[in-house]
Write a structure and sequence with these properties.
six-stranded mixed sheet, alpha/beta, 21% strand, single chain, 314 residues
Length: 314
């Protein structure tokens, strides 16, 4: 069947159309995304009227595209930007009233669990105990486990976009701001390490998310044009080296690096600081990149529960 997944993230809203059925690998058929940067539309702890209207407009457009592409069932979810907004539920209810699209707000722990599921299915049981790390725009997710459900799933407010907005005042930021953010990140992550590794050291350490893909690309990994089956990895040594270099670059200079987009360049330094701290504190010499992440986890979970479950019949 043809499934649609509507992902309302902190940076990007994305409609992904997949051809999928139970027991088969989901195949991407069509992708449509826009950088709405909803996190930047948070006025204090409320999503602004402009941000709400832009989101509403994208959902209307996504529904038209989904119909054109033959989508039979749509699952929609939102992550930290909407989760952090006190009026997030109100905005989503207004969208549901008009479009019938029921956008479910995922908790941070659910993000970690679903991303873990996607990574487990991609690499399989031979990976043994998995440790999965994902740096989003608003949060950092860490999950570890031996099965398809992780033993532990942690979400911290250490997203690359969030940290950039909250901690940096210039481009490039002053050295004292970088040091202060580095201390903050390491203190936050340090509190979680014991609770994660008490279940055992990982056999396979994996990274997902745009931040890790960009860091791997500038460190020499293969470009996306070589396809999802090309093995890509990222060493802690490379992350540490590039973190220092990124701190001295403006966003424009970062944008000139391979694989770094204009929209992501400003937050790459904060993402690198999070990656460096996580790999250091968990004692991870290297991470392997997985092409599947949260969206694929949502699709896989949806397939697991068909024909029951929630969704929008088109």
């Amino acid at each position: 069947m043809r499934l649609g997944v509507l992902d309302v993230g902190s940076n990007t809203v994305h409609l992904l159309v997949m051809d999928a059925h139970q027991g088969a690998r989901p195949l991407p058929a069509y992708s449509h995304k826009v950088e709405l940067r909803l996190a930047e539309h948070l006025d204090g702890d409320r999503l602004s009227a402009q941000g709400a209207e832009q989101l509403h407009g994208f959902v209307r457009e996504a529904m038209r595209i989904a119909e054109d592409k033959g989508v039979e069932d749509l699952v929609a979810f939102a992550t930290s930007a909407v989760r952090d907004a006190v009026n997030g539920e109100e905005v989503l209810n207004q969208i549901k009233d008009e479009t019938r699209v029921d956008i479910q707000v995922l908790s941070g722990a659910d993000e970690a669990r679903l991303t873990f599921l996607a990574v487990r299915r991609w690499f399989g049981w031979s990976s043994g105990r998995l440790l999965v790390i994902d740096i989003g725009g608003g949060s950092l997710e860490i999950a570890s486990g031996i099965d398809e459900q992780p033993d532990t799933a942690v979400s911290l407010p250490l997203g690359a976009g969030r940290l950039t907005r909250d901690w940096f005042t210039a481009d490039p930021p002053p050295a004292d701001e970088v040091r202060a953010l580095r201390r903050h990140i390491r203190a936050e992550i340090g509190r979680t390490v014991g609770g994660v590794i008490r279940y055992g050291r990982p056999d396979h350490t994996v990274a997902t998310s745009k931040t890790f893909r960009q860091l791997a690309r500038i460190a020499g990994a293969a470009p996306s044009s070589e396809g999802p089956y090309t093995k890509r990895s990222l060493t802690h040594e490379a992350v540490t080296s590039w973190t220092g270099r990124l701190a001295e670059m403006s966003s424009a200079k970062r944008n000139s690096l391979p694989g770094v987009s204009v929209g992501r360049a400003p937050q790459l330094l904060a993402g690198a600081l999070v990656a460096d701290a996580t790999m250091d504190l968990f004692d991870l010499p290297a991470l392997e990149l997985c092409p599947w992440a949260l969206r694929e986890g949502v699709i896989l979970r949806r397939l697991d529960v068909l024909p029951s479950g929630s969704g929008v019949r088109l």
